[in-house]
Amino acid sequence: MEPTIRDATSDDVPAILAIINHAIAHTTAVYDYQPRSLEVQQAWFDKKHADNMPVLVADYNGKVIGFGSYGIFRPWEGYRFSVEHSIYVSEESRGKGVGKLLLEALIEAARKQGFHTMIAGIDAENAVSCELHRKLGFQETGRLKEVGYKFDKWLDLAFMQLYL
């Protein structure tokens, strides 16, 4: 059975928090070092809602197994038609198509909201994420060398872009 992609609610924030904190502790998908608190994650969720930006979850049998969102790429008015997205999938659900479902839903939401382009900032060593984005039409448009540092090594950031 395939998970359901739906709008997140405040009740989903603890599950979202668990997924992001696992990514912080164990991956380079996010370059944060410290786990987030429930208050910080709730404030993030509330800001997305206030800004009319989606937070979607992948729900499988009542359990949140992934989430995705986007926001305006940069905080200046000229960027208001460009969004940058993030997708995180629980460790036990990776490799099962959950990320693809979330990304497809985010692309559709961005098109409906009238955005022009969608951008992904991906750790350049994350071949699985880069390939997923390529399959959905994203192209690598830039790479910043050694801009991140985590787990005692320098990390390159690949930017991938899709015109909506």
UniProtKB/TrEMBL annotation:
<keyword id="KW-0012">Acyltransferase</keyword>
<keyword id="KW-0808">Transferase</keyword>
<dbReference type="InterPro" id="IPR016181">
    <property type="entry name" value="Acyl_CoA_acyltransferase"/>
</dbReference>
<feature type="domain" description="N-acetyltransferase">
    <location>
        <begin position="3"/>
        <end position="156"/>
    </location>
</feature>
<protein>
    <submittedName>
        <fullName>N-acetyltransferase family protein</fullName>
    </submittedName>
</protein>
<dbReference type="InterPro" id="IPR000182">
    <property type="entry name" value="GNAT_dom"/>
</dbReference>
<dbReference type="Pfam" id="PF00583">
    <property type="entry name" value="Acetyltransf_1"/>
</dbReference>
